[in-house]
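Try it yourself: sequence plus iron/sulfur cluster, in.
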Amino acid sequence: MPPLPGKEDVMDTEMELYLHIPFCVKKCEYCDFLSGPYDEKTQHAYVLALCNEIRYMGRQIPAKLRSVFIGGGTPSWLDGQEMERIMETVKASFTLLPGAEVTIECNPGTVTREKLSIYRSSGINRLSIGLQSANEEELKLLGRIHTFDRFLHTYEMAREAGFSNISVDIMTGLPGQTKELLSHTLSSVLRLKPEHISAYSLIIEEGTPFYEKYTADEDAEYELMKWAREYLEQRGYHRYEISNYARPGYESLHNTGYWRRVPYIGCGVGAAGLLVGGREGNGELRTENIRDIYRYIELCSQLPDIKIPQGDLYSPLWEEQTPLTREDAMEEFMFLGLRMTEGISAAEFASVFGIGIEEVYGEVLQRFYDQGLMERQKDRIFLTEQGMDVSNMVLAEFLLS
Ligand code: SF4
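Structure, out:
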């Protein structure tokens, strides 16, 4: 078994922090995330529990953070003071590096001017707003709680509160979506000039109400995705990852960190983390917290009394901890890095793993170069546009076992 990361390994590394807030006003029809409606008492108990976990992890790894992402769920559904409490705990437990990106996910209709001003004063500097569509029929079909007007109101309030870095989520591949409907969504959003747009394809997950009602039409989806990409690129939003577009300089630092395998701590129910310490792919650990919210709250109440263990990192909340082998780390390096349009650096691969990329992946790379799905320019290896269109198939070929 590969060695676990020791504390001395991670102490000086730049890290990211993900905080999971699992609360939503109601469950959307297509959603299989760990989220749902909970009463106020549970929400309050959860915030206290989360703060205990943040403090506990901070005592073990008082990391320097380049980004914090507060995701969910609908974090903006929480009371403003609760969010302030969470941010105060983060700042007391870790060091936020100058220029750190601190994002909160919001849904239209769940924020007020007061909340937005609390977010700003507590250090949150980026909003990610879940719009999904500007068409009322599509919003209803998805089971969203908001209208397009509500989104506009939220967006305007956010600008007034001083947010100069806003991302908007939209969805392609909705049942019955036409180019006209998607065009209406995109033009309505672009009129507002957000800094960043995430355009995800709807995935119809088993176990959701959508699964019973609809089947995906992959060809139509592909055409719409392609059309959306061209539409956005012609209007100054460059695609920097399979589903993400930004105006220059506004690529998400946090998400780019995931694809570059920057280590991160995950706090909250079901949250995942990547703790990276050693060299040559050794000493890396993927962690995942327990998924039962009540058990999470109970275990977190015991954390203040737990002595910080010497040596290896540890949390009683980890339901899964998977030490990564060198091969696991190589696979991740490839299939995460290749999601970005800039791809990966061959020199970095060699320096991290102590072996040339051609020696490990020479055959598969050559095959994709020949098929026009990948390209190499000097040190960089990346998917072509055609390769991005079939990225699932291409990325799967980088599995070593
Ligand atoms: S708001 Fe987001 S997390 Fe909540 S139910 Fe809807 S899709 Fe899921």
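One thing you can check immediately is this: The longest helix spans residues 40-60.
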